[in-house]
Amino acid sequence: MIGLVRSGVNTIATAEDLVRYARQCPEIMSTKAPGDEAAAYDPFAGGVVDDESLCRGFEAALLVWEAIGAVSEQRWLTRLGWWGLPRALARAWNGDFDRAAWVDSTELDGKEGSWPGRAPSPAELGIREPPVAT
Q: What is the pTM assigned to this prediction?
């Protein structure tokens, strides 16, 4: 999704393109030196089988993105998608895209975040109680 948004509005958004963007994204490229024997799973280390799995996953995501208007019926990134997808990703990871710097999880002091199943408080949504006249 990062590569798609970086490409801008009206960029073609097919599952194959999203796989290519994912493989080329500098934020997720492996930084291990040759010879490192890491046992961690690397979803981008495989070949055709991994590409097919990623394509199926991206096809499902594209159906949702089309339903919410992030991509057009012809699979072009819309202005809404360009603006909203990064914010949705940040929110999914309990971040705030529009804030200057994200809060490190150690700085939360036990405060709850925006986790699935937890309704945000009115204050978190920017809703203030009306003033009470006395």
A: 0.58
